[in-house]
Design brief:
This protein is mainly α. It has four helices and no strands. Helix 2 crosses helix 3 (45-55). The longest helix has 12 residues, at 57-68. The relative contact order is 0.20.
Length: 69
Amino acid sequence: MGIDDRPADELIPGSLKRSRSYHGDYGNKTYGEIKHLAASNPPDPKARQMKKLIEQAERLQGKERKRGT
């Protein structure tokens, strides 16, 4: 099972689910579905935000940790 087959909720840590870029209605969609929606014409803005959140989760968590100390 590749990353594209995993639901977005499994790929986004709980602390990032409070972000304005997180959309709960897209949480059950797979990463592959979100990438497809984000690349469609016209692109789905919610899907683009979720895709970016998934791809940058590690960086964003590091930023959150630094801010919390």
